[in-house]
Amino acid sequence: MEIQKLHLQETKAPMDLLLLADPSEEQVNSYLKKGQCYIAKISNRIIGVYVLVPINSRRIEIKNIAVAENEQGKGNGKELVKHAVANACLQGYKVVEIGTGNSSIGQLALYQKCGFRITGVRKNFFKKNYEEEIVENGITCIDMVRLEMVL
Ligand code: ACO
Ligand code: ACO
User: Fold this and answer.
1) Which of 8, 100, 102, 135 is disulfide-compatible with 143, CB 3.0–4.6 A?
2) Domains in the chain, ordered, with CATH?
3) Which of 102, 137, 139 has most ligand 2 atoms within 8 Å of CB, for mutation?
4) What is 93-109 written as a DSSP string?
């Protein structure tokens, strides 16, 4: 897998992939403006994406991470999370944050396997900020679970 930074002035972000991680195109566009977008390619095909958004001079957040459906479950997501963390470290950040839904069991497993620890819950985040109801694993997504890794 080859991972490279996308220059958003020149190339459009892969919205189809970004929307797998976040169903609100409006939210995606708003953090793309503030963040850094990286894409992963296999045989010159874009199969993954992640977006890093600085919170302050010490903290940065992985706001969006996604792998194309036919490439999931093969270790690509783990490689992207590890790349994002190493990238944040190289840029001098001390803490990486990530947030996901209470219903996102696989994502919670992945982030903890990569070394993230749960730090809190933003109650009703998805209920307040998303018009459409989100259901995963038979669970309604209501709250955001916050995780972080100290570098
Ligand atoms: N129980 C235990 N472990 C699990 C479970 C589960 N239910 N589900 C997944 N895992 C583990 C896997 O076993 C694997 O760990 P392992 O390598 O130790 O076996 C790991 O989680 C998944 O690893 P990958 O194969 O590397 O992940 P994948 O390539 O499928 O990418 C991703 C994960 C990015 C979440 C992908 O499924 C995806 O794009 N989903 C849709 C978009 C999405 O939900 N993005 C995250 C939203 S939150 C955010 O963007 C900040
Ligand atoms: N992803 C999504 N859903 C899952 C997952 C998963 N990884 N694992 C379980 N579930 C769902 C199942 O799909 C099922 O839901 P469904 O009926 O909608 O499909 C539900 O969780 C499990 O239901 P049951 O079959 O009724 O549960 P079970 O009889 O297995 O009992 C229990 C669960 C009590 C946790 C049992 O596994 C057990 O005794 N485990 C060991 C002891 C333990 O861990 N106890 C809890 C510790 S915490 C405490 O005690 C307060």
Assistant:
1) 102
2) 2-150 (3.40.630.30)
3) 137
4) -SEEEEEEETT-HHHHH
Q: What digits encode the pLDDT tens for the residues 32-51?
A: 999 999 999 999 999 999 99
Distance from the CA of 92 to the center of ligand 2, in angstroms? 42
* Average pLDDT, integer, range 76-85: 98
Q: What is the rounded distance in angstroms from the CA atom of residue 144 to the CA atom of residue 104?
A: 10
CA distances from 127 to 58, 94, 105, 122, 123 (A): 29, 31, 18, 11, 9
With a 6 A CB cut-off, is 137 part of the ligand 2 pocket? Answer: yes
Q: What is the pTM of this model?
A: 0.95
Inform me whether the pLDDT recorded for 79 exceeds 90: yes
Which helix (DSSP H) or strand (DSSP E) does residue 52 occupy? strand 45-54
User: CB of 135 closer than 6 A to ligand 2?
Assistant: no
